[in-house]
Amino acid sequence: METETKITLKNQSDVVVGALNACFFAKRGFNVHVFESREDIRKAKIVKGRSINLALSHRGRQALKHVGMEDKIISKGIPMHARMIHSLSGKQSPIPYGRKGQYILSVDRANLNKELLSDAETYPNTTLNFEHKLQDWSADTGLMTFSRSDGSKDQIHADLIVGCDGAFSATRKQFLRRSRFNYSQTYIPHGYMELTMPPVNGEFAMKPNYLHIWPRNTFMMIALPNLDKTFTCTLFMPFEDFEKITTGDEVIQFFQSYFPDMIPLIGVEALKKDYFRLPAQAMVSVKCSPYHIGDKCVLMGDAAHAVVPFYGQGMNAGFEDCIVFDELMEQFNEDFRAVLPEYTRVRVPDDHAIADLAMYNYVEMRAHVNSKWFLFRKHVDNVLHFFLPKTIIPLYTMVTFTRIPYHHAVERWHWQNKVINYGLLLSAVGAVLGGSYLLTKHSQQVNKLAVPAEKMWTRLVSFRIPGMMTTQM
Ligand code: EGU
């Protein structure tokens, strides 16, 4: 039906958004050529690099649904209905994400890649090209030049170039040369390292249907379950602290101090080995605008907006990009001259909002989130939402379980905070809430906790400075 050639270009880590996008465009009848710099991950023996599992939530699922892939992907995902907060003493406390049907899924990045590539390939109007590295492209002619692994060059003409090539996008280089292109990137002082927790007697070492969290202020550990009954544990820590640990014994000492309950679950020897397997990985936040050049090229996914992982939204935001673009294609009859500028206009504020939210959450978590504080804050969210379900919707709920545009969610969150600030509400509900928290969680130790709880309360109130975006409700 269409004669136009459409090129989706991808490489490195962002294969998922590129492959999904290929399905979206193929479904519309475009001739799609996908270029990937690495070899075909489905044939690769070792898959190194980026994080192993991802948290799939509503936005990502909706995008998969559009191309008929939702069921296939969720059947291999592990539902996480709640967080499980691990305190330093080893105590575990669950906090649900929402109502019964509200859960997120732990999905395997490699499997997602493979399934989406295989699905893209089923469209007769789609071809996949691996080991094609983008060297250069022209915004005037749409001519793209690729280098292949044997050193040879390949040139192809495209009507539309879709750059889904990750945080270090080669497509984006052309944008950077142009006037009135805004760009910023920030590396955070933290790095991350992934450690594997093996099964115990063939079963998960911890409860599987949770996102396990060990909040320790500047350090944080998170664990997501995998189908093979392992957990992938991700340690977030300032690079300078990673560098201080140089021997196996220091690793054990460190875990003894901050994550003692994990030592028997991972195992002393495994821990000593795993820690030095790969150096800590950096995390970068990238914002830019516009996302398009004329009617020739558009950036999506991490290429347009790499976010730090502290909201679990990187992939979900990239997948939602694909839906938004597809909706505009429908609205403007696939006229790229109209679709591309409109895509920039509607999508930049939302992608910038999620980039900011993820960064704020990083700052907040590292500043003062220990396990008690985390539990208290999430409890406040849930109780307010319970009493005023229409008025107060926790920010993470809007972000995770709805398709409310990210920037609307932020605006609404500010508004909610004002309601909480100025209304009598806060004091009325507050008494109930503080009391119920103490009674339900610490019925035997009310006396012991009275002072810390009061401190937390002062902290909460002091955060509600109008116009300041510090807390997350
Ligand atoms: C980080 C790394 C808990 C996977 C943010 C919550 C994350 C994930 C949270 C990673 C946290 C942090 C949320 C989800 C999710 C929470 C969320 C973070 C998945 C505000 C594979 N975050 N993540 N917030 O609410 O909305 O449970 O590596 F520790 S899922 Cl940092 Cl919902």
What would you note in describing this structure?
The protein is an alpha/beta fold and 473 residues long. The chain has 17 helices and 19 strands. It has helices spanning 15-27, 58-66, 70-74, 109-121, 172-176, 239-244, 248-258, 263-266, 268-275, 302-305, 314-331, 336-368, 371-387, 395-401, 406-422, 425-441, 446-463; strands at residues 5-10, 31-36, 53-56, 78-80, 82-86, 92-96, 104-108, 126-129, 132-137, 143-148, 153-157, 160-164, 182-197, 210-216, 219-225, 231-238, 281-289, 292-293, 297-299. 40% of the residues are buried. The protein binds ligand EGU. The site of ligand EGU has 20 residues, from strand 3, strand 14, strand 15, helix 12 and helix 14. Residues 17-323 form the FAD-binding domain.
List the SSEs and their pairings.
Layout: E1 5-10, H1 15-27, E2 31-36, E3 53-56, H2 58-66, H3 70-74, E4 78-80, E5 82-86, E6 92-96, E7 104-108, H4 109-121, E8 126-129, E9 132-137, E10 143-148, E11 153-157, E12 160-164, H5 172-176, E13 182-197, E14 210-216, E15 219-225, E16 231-238, H6 239-244, H7 248-258, H8 263-266, H9 268-275, E17 281-289, E18 292-293, E19 297-299, H10 302-305, H11 314-331, H12 336-368, H13 371-387, H14 395-401, H15 406-422, H16 425-441, H17 446-463
Parallel strand pairs: 1-2, 1-12, 2-8, 5-14, 12-19
Antiparallel strand pairs: 3-7, 4-7, 5-6, 9-10, 10-11, 13-16, 13-17, 14-15, 15-16, 18-19
Helix pairs in contact: 1-4, 1-11, 2-11, 7-9, 11-12, 12-15, 13-16
Bound molecules: ligand EGU.
Subcellular location: Mitochondrion outer membrane
Pathway: Cofactor biosynthesis; NAD(+) biosynthesis; quinolinate from L-kynurenine: step 1/3
Catalytic activity: L-kynurenine + NADPH + O2 + H(+) = 3-hydroxy-L-kynurenine + NADP(+) + H2O
